[in-house]
Design brief:
mainly beta
């Protein structure tokens, strides 16, 4: 523990966190000046500040931040769009379009929030979670 800037030899919290990252805080981040081409999948949150060309399929949360651009489909438990998405958005629990968000494609989720000022060119389907998942699985099998 540090007292008045002095350390007692114990490992500081940031160093300990860097040595052993927590899976609860794990996230994939595409930086503001980065461009990623390809599909993203895994078991952690995804935040897009830059540009992604490909599909994102994760069982957690996807955020397309203000200034971020996504060309491809998104499937996650929760999707928040503050940037631009050209593709289908499918959320198992909740999809949210922020005032700065723009989606060119369909949005499917049991709960959909569209803020004043958000832009949507497509359809909204508020299907129950089980129906959305079943429809997606049927589409994949075809």
């Amino acid at each position: 523990m540090a007292i008045f800037g002095k350390t007692d030899g114990a490992t500081s919290a940031p160093a300990a966190e860097a040595a052993a990252p927590s899976t609860a805080a794990a996230a994939t981040i595409v930086g503001a000046r980065a461009r990623f081409v390809g599909d993203i999948s895994g078991d952690e949150d995804v935040t897009i500040h830059g540009r992604v060309e490909g599909n994102v399929d994760v069982p957690r949360r996807v955020v397309v931040a203000q200034g971020g651009e996504m060309k491809g489909d998104i499937h996650a438990r929760t999707v928040v769009v503050g940037g631009k998405v050209q593709g289908q958005v499918r959320a198992d629990e909740r999809a949210e379009l922020l005032a700065s968000g723009s989606v060119q494609g369909n949005v499917t989720a049991p709960k959909v929030v569209i803020a004043e000022g958000a832009q949507l060119q497509g359809n909204v389907a508020m299907a129950p979670a089980d129906a959305a998942g079943a429809a997606a699985q049927t589409k994949v099998k075809e």
